[in-house]
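Request from the bench team (R.T.):
"We need a structural guess for the complex before ordering more flavin-adenine dinucleotide. Sequence and SMILES attached. Just send the tokens back."

Command: build protein-flavin-adenine dinucleotide structure.
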Amino acid sequence: MDLLRSLPDTTLLTELDALEPFRHDESHLVGHVPLGVVRPRSAAALRELVRLAKAEGFGLVPRGAGTGKAGGCVPTARTVVVDFSAWPGDLNVSSQDLALTAPASALLRDVKAAAIAEGLFYPPDPNSWESCALGGTLATNAGGPNACKYGMTRHWVLSVDALLEDGGIHTFGISSVKSNAGPALGQLLIGSEGIFGLIVGATLRLTPLPREYATLLLPVARWEDLLDLPGRLCGAGYLPSAFEFFDPAVLAELRAHGPEEARRLPGEALAILEFDERGCTSEPFLEGLLDLLGPVADGLEIASDERQRKGIWAVRRMTSAFLKERHPKKVSEDIVVPRSRLREFFAGLDRLGFPSVSYGHLGDGNLHVNLLAAGETDPALLERQLMDLFRLATSLGGTLSGEHGIGLAKRDAFLALSDPAHIQTLRALKRAMDPAGIFNPGKVI
Ligand SMILES: Cc1cc2nc3c(=O)[nH]c(=O)nc-3n(C[C@H](O)[C@H](O)[C@H](O)COP(=O)(O)OP(=O)(O)OC[C@H]3O[C@@H](n4cnc5c(N)ncnc54)[C@H](O)[C@@H]3O)c2cc1C
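Reply to R.T.: structure attached below.
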């Protein structure tokens, strides 16, 4: 599109070969060929882009690192991809304010490393943390294993800088945890998947870096015993900073076909637990913990140094990539149920009767239910299976997405299963914040 050539401070891609990769993210969806891909480097470029989008009637699809799993950054018809990878800005840590300022383009791994360099901690840890961009994590409200203790990205954002439909960049929030002058509009942008505006940077909340970790590999003889454990631990005053699990089916898959270290994994089912509070490696702490875990454990390993800790985590970190490589057309969901209802969920999943394997974040009930045979399943049947899965989760007080968001992939299910008043309110907000409909059209609602 020739008009895009007039944008200041912008790299423009228009060749078909160059546009092709931008039709994909890490979901199974393939988008339209965008009108172009722009990499803006200044507020002036964004202002002009918004003016052009309104005048010419094209949409703007924001993109971070493209690791999303819901098709959120996949282009819909007549859209321009706004790739934030060249957006300028430095990472600045204030240890007095316990705050870190960063541009949307910063990679999450660099954000986390900048905090660590000052003895501080930024907890959000999606398993894509080494490759995803801060802007993408803010727009999707990303969360990972640590969410069961520390919450999600939105709990760690003090202020957000965002491009709104007036073409200006506005800051919502201040560099302090206490800010209560009216409703928190910045929180509306977190998890909005780019439909209300484009995030260009943020100030994040930090906390002192944990100094101790107790990391345990917990095989269980009876899979069902694992399902009560998150609730029982919390009830007894133990809050893990991570509680990950592998069900018997995924464990069998890993043992049969996984890499060397996965072939030796013990138990009918398996969990990884980590604690990071001060004193968690002390004898009284571990004795109390082992009293709770002992009756269900089928052998138990406690990492005694950082090398062993990394070894325990390596299996969890590679699981998603391994399954994807072995079953390229699998569908991986990320439903949530309250941890008090895990048993009911898995009983319900058994009753649904379709083959699936599950792993993920047992500590907060965020379960990656994978349909490995999705590629060979009749699409209409697959859709029914997924809707049954989502209905099961929502009927237990859960939701259809705990971390990946709605994007394009779950839009129909989201619209079908949500309270109509919820959707009407979101649409009213969309009309108010984006009357011309330029921001990520066709996504979420
Ligand atoms: C192996 C693997 C493991 C993963 N594990 C997790 C996990 O544990 N937890 C989790 O939450 N997610 C996980 N994800 C999904 C994904 O990595 C996260 O959602 C991540 O936050 C996306 O970041 P990104 O920069 O790649 O965003 P993108 O994929 O580029 O974009 C994601 C969404 O955000 C919007 N967006 C991007 N940048 C901006 C911006 N600057 N302003 C406004 N909107 C914007 C896009 O339009 C899109 O809707 C995983 C993905 C993979 C491939």
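Two things stood out. DSSP finds 15 helices and 19 strands in the chain. The longest strand covers residues 198-205.
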